[in-house]
Amino acid sequence: MPPRVLHFKSIYLNRSETFIDRLIRHLQRYDPIVATLFPKHYTENLPIYTPSGWWAWRRDCWLKQLNRTPRFLYGLCRRLQPALVHAHFGLDGYRLIGLARKTGLPLVVSFYGHDVSRLPDAAGWQRRYQRLALQGTRFIAATEAMKQQLLRLGFPETRIAVVRFGLDLHQFAFQARHQAGPRLLLVGRLVEKKGHAVALEAVARLHALGIEARLSCLGDGPLRNALKEKAQKLGIADRVLFYGEVTNEQVHDAYYTHDVLLVPSQTATDGDQEGLPNVLIEGLACGIPVIATRHAGIPELVQHESTGLLVPEGDAEALAAAILRLMETPGLVARLSYAGRLAVEQLHSLERMVGDVEAVYDDVLKCIP
Questions:
Q1: CA Rg value for the chain
Q2: What is the pLDDT of residue 343?
Q3: pLDDT at position 1, please?
Q4: Would you state the pLDDT for residue 16?
Q5: What is the CATH number of domain 4-166+349-366?
Q6: What is the model's pLDDT at position 259?
Q7: Is residue 72 predicted with pLDDT exceeding 70?
Q8: Could you tell me which CATH number the domain at 169-347 has?
Q9: Three-state SS for 259?
Q10: What average pLDDT does the segment 255-265 reach?
Q11: Is the N end or the C end of the chain the one with fewer CB atoms within 10 Å?
Q12: H or E segment at 149?
């Protein structure tokens, strides 16, 4: 029987966290068990465990608020005997220190973005991360840039592995592009770090030049009303569509019905940053040309004029110029389209992600006396 891995995330899962779902469902040599307090999305056909009964759930939610191990996990480990525990996001990793200490199970923690950018600036979290760095067994960063952030937070380099998000490329057919039209696409929650406001300003600049451009914004969030008002003030309300929350299938279809994918990510005022936006990997796999920013781990996949175009964070003028350049340069569009797909095949295949994570598990279990 394959060794069991207990995967824990307080909320399993948010719609944007498809990368976690893909990993767990496609493990080859390890048997996944999923534990959570709040089952939400991507739970079908998985062994999902939650506290038994309302009182146990309330107790464990309270323990979560105190950043301690939910108690139901102890009984779960006794019954199912996992070989190791894998926590997803640093916050939940810290919560499982007590479980690892009392059970003797190795603790693997994956970091994905805001847990290494914004969270360490919150009260008490640098101290908590120092404890996690000492007591965690292995740490997984989604990008090289994120690994550097972990090093600055005091995590030991010898126990950090970089494992890039993986994509099932059979589900993202490549459609070569040979020209870029006016249909622009931006996918992501309507929050500051996604850069929607900059994209609106870029569309307004193109409009002022008499250039036709229409922007589809897929996703919802707290900035929806403010962004709609901004579009109105910029005089482009009729050129911007806010679709609200959409399904993964709708996002997938949008890659093929739009001409340019915009990923204008930026560091938010509270320090929040991306890891590597999943939409970027998906879009490149589908062949849509990408314009993104020099932000966090993005340049590790989007290399300027090779697999996409890069512009500075927060620079609407540069973003508008890059859009116009794609519209006017069909040869560049074709080159980026093919190179983007090849980069995803080389760096972000599902098989590579699963193999890299299972190599971490192997290394952890080899070290157990």
A1: 21
A2: 97
A3: 83
A4: 87
A5: 3.40.50.2000
A6: 98
A7: yes
A8: 3.40.50.2000
A9: coil
A10: 98
A11: C
A12: helix 144-152
User: What tens digit of pLDDT does each residue of 8-58 get?
Assistant: 999 999 988 999 999 999 999 999 999 999 999 999 999 999 999 999 999
Contacts of 296 (CB under 8 A, 6+ apart): 113, 117, 143, 145, 146, 265, 273, 274, 275, 276
Is it the case that residue 89 has pLDDT exceeding 70? yes
Could you read off the pLDDT of 199-215 as tens digits, one per residue? 999 999 999 999 999 99
Q: Kind and range of the H or E element at 333?
A: helix 330-347
Q: What angle do CA 66, 69, 75 make, to 5 degrees?
A: 145
- Cα gap 15→29, rounded to integer Å: 26
Helical ranges in 42-143 per DSSP H = 54-65, 72-80, 90-95, 97-103, 114-117, 125-135
Q: Which of 174, 170, 173 is nearest to 337 (CA)?
A: 174
Of 274, 210, 286, the C-alpha closest to 308 is 286
In this prediction, residue 369 carries a pLDDT of: 66
- For range 280-287, the mean pLDDT: 98
CB 366 within 8 A of CB 84: no
Q: Is the peptide bond before 13 cis (omega within 30 degrees of 0)?
A: yes
Percent of the chain at pLDDT > 90 equals 96
Cite the residue boundaries of each domain of the chain with CATH code 3.40.50.2000: 4-166+349-366, 169-347
Tell me the helices (H) and strands (E) count for the chain, helix number first. 15, 15
Burial class for 60, CB neighbours closer than 10 Å (0-12, 13-18, 19+): buried
Edge-to-edge strand order for the sheet containing 309-311? Answer: 240-244, 214-218, 183-187, 260-263, 290-293, 309-311
pLDDT digits (tens, 9 = 90+) for 295-314: 999 999 999 999 999 999 99
* Residue tagged 């991507």 (tokens): 42
- Residues pairing with 110 in the sheet: 88, 140
Angle at alpha carbon of residue 336, lines to 145 and 319, rounded to 5°? 70
Give the pLDDT band of residue 283 (cuts 50, 70, 90).
very high
Beta carbons within 8 Å of 178's beta carbon, 6+ residues apart: 330, 333, 334, 337
Integer Cα distance of 202 and 212 in angstroms? 12
Amino acid at 81: Q
